[in-house]
């Protein structure tokens, strides 16, 4: 075999996919960075790779050590797989409201998964705080590493070092806009920071679901939110360490009623079997394209597969109960 690679070395260098319907609708060229094609199946593989790589380089942990993280799921999957490849144990603390598919995947990968009630971040029993306290309570001679994807800027740095330069190279620098949703803020902050250093002006923006406060923070300088969303892993109501100082120009609030028709088109007409966060990203790219006008080139993130959310996304009773549009084929 030529040039065999470990798991972490296979993360990144994902293709750009032209989104035909969004492009035709706006008169722009809209592309999705196919992060669902990472070996662990999501954009969070990048954060996991750089969080663990940073910890190993700084000798915070070594093979036989334990990684602890609070996560909605995808970062936990990435950390578990990168950890497995490096001889690390992984403990994941997750809100019990997250999809059964992600919980099952984590257990199948060998993670020590601990689900807890979903409560706001300000509550001391929030899953993030529980993960931090758990890490502080553990003793392992090979190290215990609280990954802290929210405030550990190795997350942001990973996107600065990899995601942004990849996009730039794939488009030969002919890029006018970048937009994605905010969970930890690592993707948007890292990509934005790198793009702002280039010799072409690029508008960077957040696509924010109902129930999240980043839209209002970017537009008005304070965290404020209302409503709720069926999306998982995105939607933030605090300024994380990864978001601090990020050069973000614009924000759009995208309700579920707007993102789902876009998602159904991506699946049913473009063959892209994606989760709801990708729907909000593409809906945001359409909004940004309309604001910039025809003839511009915009990139967003295709985060993960719909296979991690099937029991919700394709459940007519669940969607109808929330007053949301069903996939046309259901």
TrEMBL record:
Pathway the protein acts in: Amino-acid biosynthesis; L-cysteine biosynthesis; L-cysteine from L-serine: step 2/2
Cofactor annotation: pyridoxal 5'-phosphate
Example GO molecular function: cysteine synthase activity
Origin superkingdom: Bacteria
EC number(s) reported in the record: 2.5.1.47
Transmembrane segments: none
Reactions the enzyme catalyzes: O-acetyl-L-serine + hydrogen sulfide = L-cysteine + acetate
Pfam families tied to this protein: PALP
Domain Tryptophan synthase beta chain-like PALP, residue spans: 9-304
Keywords on record: Pyridoxal phosphate, Transferase
Database matches in CDD domains: CBS_like (cd01561)
Protein's name in the database: cysteine synthase
């Amino acid at each position: 075999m030529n040039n065999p690679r470990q798991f972490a070395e296979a993360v990144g260098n994902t293709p750009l996919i032209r989104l035909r319907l969004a492009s035709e609708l706006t008169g722009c060229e809209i592309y999705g960075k196919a992060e669902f094609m990472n070996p662990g199946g999501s954009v969070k593989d990048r954060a996991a790779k750089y969080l663990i790589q940073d910890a190993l380089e700084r000798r915070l942990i070594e093979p036989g050590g334990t990684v602890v993280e609070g996560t909605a799921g995808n970062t936990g999957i990435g950390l578990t797989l990168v950890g497995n490849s490096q001889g690390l144990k992984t403990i994941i603390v997750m809100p019990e409201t997250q999809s059964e598919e992600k919980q099952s995947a984590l257990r199948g990968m060998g993670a020590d998964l601990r689900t807890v009630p979903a409560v706001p971040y300000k509550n001391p029993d929030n899953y993030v705080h529980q993960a931090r306290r758990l890490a502080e309570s553990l003793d392992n001679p090979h190290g215990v590493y609280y990954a802290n994807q929210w405030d550990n800027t190795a997350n942001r740095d990973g996107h600065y070092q990899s995601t942004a330069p990849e996009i730039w190279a794939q488009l030969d620098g002919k890029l006018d806009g970048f937009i994605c949703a905010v969970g930890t803020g690592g993707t948007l902050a890292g990509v934005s920071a790198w793009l702002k250093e280039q010799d072409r002006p690029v508008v960077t923006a957040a696509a924010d679901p109902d129930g999240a406060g980043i839209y209002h923070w970017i537009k008005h300088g304070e965290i404020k939110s209302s409503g709720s969303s069926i999306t998982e892993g995105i939607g933030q109501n605090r300024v994380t360490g990864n978001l601090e100082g990020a050069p973000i120009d614009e924000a759009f609030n995208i309700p579920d009623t707007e993102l789902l028709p876009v998602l159904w088109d991506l699946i049913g007409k473009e063959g892209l079997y994606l989760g709801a966060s990708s729907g909000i990203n593409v809906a945001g790219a359409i909004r940004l394209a309309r604001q910039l006008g025809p003839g511009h080139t915009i990139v967003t993130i295709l985060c993960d597969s719909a296979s991690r959310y099937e029991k919700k996304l394709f459940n007519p009773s669940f969607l109808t109960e929330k007053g949301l549009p069903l996939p046309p084929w259901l």
